[in-house]
Fold:
Amino acid sequence: METNLEREKRLRKKAMSLPLRPGVYLMKDKSGGIIYIGKAKALKNRVSSYFGSHRNHQTKVIRMVENVQDFDYIICDSEFEALVLECSLIKQHTPKYNILLKDDKGYHYVKVTEGPWSKIEASFHTDDPTARYFGPYTSSFAV
Structure:
């Protein structure tokens, strides 16, 4: 039986082997279920930050880390690609600790119109059936 300290040490070692590339990470519980999905500019830095000192972490993050048994990751070509993939995966898996993105009200979307002169624009709504939407994003700066 692995202790919490041994588990965090194992996960930190795995995180330290990640590349310094943009990507998405999927935190998993003991049954293999995805409990959190996040994005990173540099996977190694972001993921390893979970498995060190908890001094600067919010209670929600500490609780999530206590339940992490393993993680997977997906390397992306850009931070924007990671952001779009993160939002898509959160919608698909609805992880327990991604509560903030479960409610679509008040969030921003990237709207892409179809046609010979396609437009890309920020939107608060997803009511145009002829357009494609990416999001939601919690920050207008992300859009």
Notes: The mean pLDDT is 86. The beta strands are 23-28, 34-40, 70-75, 108-112, 120-123, 132-137. The helical segments are 4-16, 43-48, 59-67, 79-93.
